[in-house]
């Protein structure tokens, strides 16, 4: 498969998307042909994992077409900015379902130790231990503990449902975007932004949005006040939006 693609204007891309969403197969094909290089750029991240590159390209193209179908033309966002996380997500799901994405043995072992330490400390303390207490017990960092727990979960994206409210799916995007103008936030996976956070901030966001903890529950786990959690959460969410702002303008 050639990585050659055709450069087209922003206006043309948006027109092809509009036509494609209306059922025009020719416009749909043009979107694939004009984004070959984009899909290949993502595929390069996943080579040497036991799968043929052309197969991964086909999977990535499915993600591209899903991005075409879901792209909201009411926002002035570059299609490529929106499409890349969709392509990555499609390939990750394929690799995960095929068993190609594996958690390292050391991380798995730490996850087991964390569970045992939690049970031991809960028995001795008469309550659930904080993450700090588990970290001290195992002599590892808080970040290592959180990441070991996270690694056992499927990769999470802000496109995915966090929970359902009376049958209506609620995504991480719904929780984090404070108003309609910030809906551009759905262009990037949350994990990329999380990598920029300090350890405690990352733990708070993980517990709040991955584990669905209340602010009071997070405060109890970390040994701080609910007010502190609220302030930190607001600051962190704003910093994530600011960080993603550069991608929005790209």
TrEMBL record:
Highest taxon listed in the record's lineage: Bacteria
InterPro entries the UniProt entry points to: Cro/C1-type_HTH, RNA_pol_sigma-70_dom, RNA_pol_sigma-B/F/G, RNA_pol_sigma-F, RNA_pol_sigma70, RNA_pol_sigma70_r2, RNA_pol_sigma70_r3, RNA_pol_sigma70_r4
A biological-process GO annotation: DNA-templated transcription initiation
Any GO MF annotation of the entry: DNA binding
Keyword field: DNA-binding, Sigma factor, Sporulation, Transcription, Transcription regulation
CDD domains, alphabetized: Sigma70_r4
Domain HTH cro/C1-type: residue ranges: 204-234
A Pfam family per the record: Sigma70_r3
NCBIfam families on file: PRK05572.1, SigBFG, sigma70-ECF, spore_sigF
Protein family according to the UniProt entry: Belongs to the sigma-70 factor family.
Role noted for this protein: Sigma factors are initiation factors that promote the attachment of RNA polymerase to specific initiation sites and are then released.
Protein name as annotated: RNA polymerase sigma factor
The species this protein was found in: Jeotgalibacillus soli
Upper taxonomic lineage: Bacteria, Bacillati, Bacillota, Bacilli, Bacillales
């Amino acid at each position: 498969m050639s990585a050659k693609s055709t450069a087209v204007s922003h206006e043309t891309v948006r027109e092809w998307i509009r036509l494609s969403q209306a059922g025009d197969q020719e416009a749909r094909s043009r979107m694939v042909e004009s984004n070959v290089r984009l899909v290949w750029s993502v595929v390069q991240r996943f080579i040497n994992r036991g799968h043929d590159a052309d197969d991964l390209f086909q999977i990535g193209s499915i993600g591209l077409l899903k991005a075409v179908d879901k792209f909201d033309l009411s926002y002035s966002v570059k299609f490529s900015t929106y499409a890349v996380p969709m392509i990555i997500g499609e390939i990750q799901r394929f690799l995960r379902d095929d068993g190609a994405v594996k958690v390292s043995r050391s991380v798995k072992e730490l996850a087991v130790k964390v569970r045992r330490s939690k049970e031991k400390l809960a028995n001795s303390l008469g309550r659930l231990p904080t993450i700090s207490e588990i970290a001290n017990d195992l002599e590892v960092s808080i970040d290592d503990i959180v990441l070991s727990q996270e690694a056992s979960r499927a990769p999470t994206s802000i496109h995915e449902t966090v929970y359902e409210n009376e049958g209506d799916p609620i995504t991480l995007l719904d929780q984090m975007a404070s108003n309609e103008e910030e809906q551009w936030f759905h262009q990037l996976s949350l994990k990329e932004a999380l990598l920029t956070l300090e350890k405690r901030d990352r733990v708070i966001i993980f517990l709040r949005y991955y584990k669905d903890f209340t602010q009071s529950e997070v405060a109890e786990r970390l040994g701080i006040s609910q007010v502190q959690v609220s302030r930190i959460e607001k600051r962190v969410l704003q910093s994530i939006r600011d960080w993603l702002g550069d991608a929005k303008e790209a």
